[in-house]
Amino acid sequence: MKNTPEFELPSDGETAKAGAAATELSDLTAAGSHPERSTSGVGPWPGGRETWPTDAHFDPELLEHGDSRNVVDRYRYWRTEAINTDLDQQRHSFHVAIENWQHDMNIGSIVRSANAFGADTVHIVGRRRWNKRGAMVTDRYQHVEHREDIDALVAWARAEGVPIIAIDNVPGCVSMETFDWPEKCVMLFGQEGPGLTGEAIAASEAIVEITQYGSTRSINASAAAAVAMYSWVMQRSPLRPR
User: Fold this and answer.
1) Which pTM does this prediction carry?
2) pLDDT tens across 113-132, in order?
3) Rounded percentage of the chain residues whose pLDDT exceeds 90
4) 135-138, Cβ contacts within 8 angstroms, sequence gap of 24 or more
5) CB of 199 within 8 A of CB of 154?
6) Could you tell me if 77 and 109 lie in one domain?
7) Phi, psi (5° rounding) for residue 98?
8) Are residues 186 and 102 located together in one domain of the fold?
9) Residue 167 is part of a domain; what is its CATH number?
10) Same domain, yes or no: 83 and 116
11) Residues 22-54: pLDDT tens digits?
12) Pair (43, 131) in one structural domain
């Protein structure tokens, strides 16, 4: 379920004001530094309560005590709901689905990558509970939905008109380097070790593999997911640098 916007998105001037405070506190303008320098968080808003911004997307608790969350500098001091509202204006049109039959620890990392690459929604297929440790709390800012089984995922995909693209190195697969990603799709990943189930393969409109050049048969499931999402972004994202 998408978030209903509850906050008016800030103007460029308001965002710049928030960024200036974080810059002052964390020395983000150090010569030669990377744009994202506040990885360990920022302290209270400089200047005390009388200087606090009054816009609805700011969180008074964070302004008072500081913001140590795993968010980019743009979202420092923002309410969680406001961050989600803003992200909903720019999420990409691809989805990610993961089979979850063994409580795979990779799922959290895949959710984190989905957030980083702006995926629309992550679908957990199978067991409802999943290992969130690798997500680093990014599931608060990422739509995550549960599908009981592959049939349920297929029913959703058909209703939404979204093709399922399996990611695995099995007979019949095509190279990701030559694959033309659909503008809307759901990337389907299997468990670490066994890979995708036969039902998942049969439900997919295409099977895509990541070309490898070493001796190992496969790469880590969460790494494969990040590579696939990046591949889609490089082909389809209107937001990528040109």
Assistant:
1) 0.84
2) 999 999 999 999 999 999 89
3) 76
4) 135/107, 135/108, 135/109, 135/111, 136/70, 136/108, 136/112, 137/69, 137/70, 138/70, 138/111, 138/112
5) no
6) no
7) -135, 125
8) yes
9) 3.40.1280.10
10) no
11) 455 444 323 334 456 556 789 999 999 999 999
12) no
